[in-house]
Amino acid sequence: MTTTSVTLSGVTRRFGATTVLDDVDLGFGPGVTGLLGPNGAGKTTLLRILATVLAPTAGTVRLLGRDPGDVTARTEVRRRLGYLPQANGFPRGFTAFRFVDYLAVLKEWTETGARHAEVRRVLGLVGLGDQATSRLRRLSGGQQRRVALAQALIGDPDLLVLDEPTTGLDPEQRASLRGVLSAAGRRSTVLLATHQTEDIAALCERVIVLDGGRVRYDGSVADLVGSAVGKVWLADEPSPDSLSSWRTGTGRFRMVGQHAPVGTELAEPTVEDAYLLLRGTKAEPAVTS
Ligand SMILES: Nc1ncnc2c1ncn2[C@@H]1O[C@H](COP(=O)(O)OP(=O)(O)OP(=O)(O)O)[C@@H](O)[C@H]1O
Fold first, then answer.
1. According to the 3-state scheme, what is the secondary structure of 134-160?
2. In terms of C-beta density within 10 A (0-12 exposed, 13-18 middle, 19 or more buried), how is residue 278 classed?
3. What is the 3-state secondary structure (H, E, C) of 40-58?
4. pLDDT in the model for residue 283
């Protein structure tokens, strides 16, 4: 029986004297889980561990039920893993088709006909079926990001690790991609680091907020948003009590804070509001050096 579970127990990662992940315990099964956090929170480091690119300094990792510290098990995990790194890192001179085909060869798709059909399928999934023969350097930033994502989708991996997949994508492509990722999440474990709170709201049931290398929140998106009810309000003037405020297109100020003034007009909170509130309350930083 294959397992799709992923678990981390007491995972710590240090770079020299700097602790970037500190005693992280997490478990995942099928579905799309969002990973939010400020710059430097440790999201990429966590995803690199889940993609078997980096080993933890301490703690235990089980990917698809296996220990990635064991060479044979790691190879087996990699066969069932799709990874979109934060940076695209394309070789020079490749077309979209040749690049994805090259990665498919590395993923052991030895039969040419089946491999080419798979390359066409994943390029189609990211909306680039008609750009297969375009050279990568001639594609826009958003199109290049979609090519990078296409390679992660080869073979419908059981574990899909995506580091900011929607960076640079236009609204239509982001919407279309949500369809692809939610479909993947029906059978696979999908982990998605992003700064786009709308993508979390649209796509994820569960969200993890990482802050200073520690898990600050792990729960449903609905509960996170629910925690901000009554703490987002609209007024004609900014309030000094708010954690965050800005003048909206209507000319009124939208504010997020622990205490909405009595009698004020409340607004429906978003994931972003709840995230700002969470960040606005004190967290002990784990990153030490
Ligand atoms: N190989 C490395 N050597 C030294 N420090 C590193 C290394 N990789 C990451 N770090 C440090 O670890 C911290 C967390 O980095 P990481 O890239 O995991 O954060 P992040 O949450 O993904 O940030 P962002 O939102 O900016 O992408 C940063 O302070 C970074 O400088």
1. CEHHHCCHHHHHHHHHHHHCCCCCCEE
2. middle
3. CCCHHHHHHHHCCCCCCCE
4. 41
Token pair 């491999």 is at which residue? Answer: 115
The total number of residues shown for the chain amounts to 289
The model's pLDDT over 93-106, given as tens digits with 9 standing for 90+, comes to 899 999 999 999 99
Ligand 1 pocket test: pick from 14, 15, 50 the residue with the most ligand atoms within 8 Å of its Cβ.
Answer: 15
Bridge-based pairing state of the strands 159-163 and 189-193:
parallel
Here the ipTM equals 0.96
Domain boundaries, the chain: 1-80+159-167+189-218, 227-280
Fold (topology level) of 1-80+159-167+189-218: Rossmann fold (3.40.50)
Shortest-distance atom of ligand 1 to CA 213:
14
Give residue-wise pLDDT tens across range 73-129: 999 999 999 999 998 888 888 999 999 999 999 999 999 999 999 999 999 999 999
The closest of 242, 21, 67, 52 to 157, measured between CA atoms, is: 52
User: pTM (2 decimals)?
Assistant: 0.91
From the alpha carbon of 46, which atom of ligand 1 is closest?
18
> Can you list the positions of beta strands (E) in 64-223?
81-84, 159-163, 189-193, 206-211, 214-220
Give the Å distance between the CA of 255 and the centre of ligand 1. 31
The residue type of 124 is: G
Q: Give tens-digit pLDDT for 226-266.
A: 999 999 999 998 888 788 888 999 999 999 998 888 888 99
Cβ proximity of 228 and 244 under 8 Å: no
- The residue contributing the CA closest to ligand 1 atom 24 is 39
Ligand 1 midpoint to CA 213 (Å): 10
**217 token code pair:** 């929140």
CA 148 to the chain's CA centroid: 14
